[in-house]
Amino acid sequence: MKSRQILFSALLFIPLWGQASEDEDSIFTWKTVVSDDVPPTWSAGLSLGIEDANDDSWSIELHGAWLPLKYAGISLGLAMDRSGTSLVELFSDNDDYDDDDPDKIYKLNIIPALSFRTPTLWLNKAHDYGLLLSCEPGILFSFPANDKIWVEEPGIGMHGEKVAYRHRVRNKGGETTFWRIRSFLGIRFAGGMISLGWDTSNYNIELCRKNMYDKGHRIYGRDHYKHSKTVFLAISVEL
Known about the structure:
This protein has 2 helices and 13 strands. It is α+β, with helices and mostly antiparallel strands and 239 residues long. A hairpin with a 2-residue loop joins β9 (177-189) and β10.
């Protein structure tokens, strides 16, 4: 009877021992993945984004990052923003599309930032492809701070004919410095990464026309400027 109890107890502990062994293997595997994860020291890429603020606009950004620490470093972005045109119109073959729209705004933005990344979650044993998350809080410097536009004023010509006189009006008190937080999900593969992400910032492309007055009258500007939110797709190479 006693020997049967010992045998029964042994049979009960075998599955538990097996489960403990699997847990240890899982922990060991996770530690191996983390320890074998070698993030790139240098990376460079290109992103295309659609911005949503008071009006839609789009941006193209060249982006580079340097990670002297395993999962932390610095990054630098150089972006061109353009308003007054949707991406559909930009790539349209419509002959009526006017590329000289005076309401368009062009901005050059420089964005230094800190760069933080998670360990890569590899999706196969050979580490051919995997997922990671990244966050880059930074400062956005936007130029020019003050935009100019042409204003037409009706008048009378030398022979009594109606004419339109044009002069330029420049914004005053524009802002240059803003904050931006970039977050993205990256899919790593051999030598590169494809990312889908989200930017949020107190930058608004129209702020360079916030205070435009001509002869005491406000000719451009809004009462409220929204923060910009950008969805972007990026591709980068790891160096």
